[in-house]
């Protein structure tokens, strides 16, 4: 992996990151895990988790952390810059054209289609991440019909979902609670598992 490859991979991500935020995650995963094999799915899930915990947009945090993991500080700067470069150019152009386009029916139709695509991309990223985390080899994983399965990750997932949707706890509170449960589960599995 060279810094030039990293630049062009994240430039590609930035060019096709319609929807930004969580919608960019499948593009980053496709580049760094599937296409180039720079990270494993679990390593990418870890970086995504850290990106969620840190202040700022998750897509930029993810680009920065992936770049740092692959190329140090230079990699972080290059990945982040390449990721935001297309958006800066497009936003500058759209800002100039907005007054002419905002009532145009073609523009409204394009936005309708892009909103649907964004929701689909976010759902696909969530499902992909869910499968990778639940079916991952880990400290608490067990084998079910020959497949590694992490019951603690599943319990934490449903617990987080419950706390976020039903109890309306803040994201940071839920992340900290889930992290504490994960640490406790790790120590308990090592204490009783061997």
Uncertain runs: none
Overall tally of structural domains: 2
Regarding quaternary structure, how should these chains be classified?
A: single chain
Order of helices and strands: HHHHHEEHH
Spatial strand arrangement across the major sheet: 1-2
Shape: globular
User: What percentage of amino acids are in beta strands?
Assistant: under 5%
Annotation, overall tally of beta strands: 2
Mean pLDDT, to the nearest integer, reads 87
Distance between the termini: 38 Å
Number of helices: 7
Radius of gyration over alpha carbons?
19 Å
Give a brief description.
By secondary structure, the chain is mostly helical.
Q: What labels describe this entry?
A:
two-stranded antiparallel ribbon, 2 domains, mainly alpha, 194 residues, 2 strands
Description of the structure:
With 194 residues, this protein is mainly alpha-helical. The protein folds into two domains: 1-122, no CATH class; 135-194, no CATH class. Helix content is 77%, strand content 3%. The protein is built from seven helices and two strands. The chain has a two-stranded antiparallel ribbon. Strand 1 and strand 2 (147-149) form a beta hairpin. Helix 6 (151-165) runs antiparallel to helix 7 (171-193). The radius of gyration is 19 Å and the shape is globular. The mean pLDDT is 87.
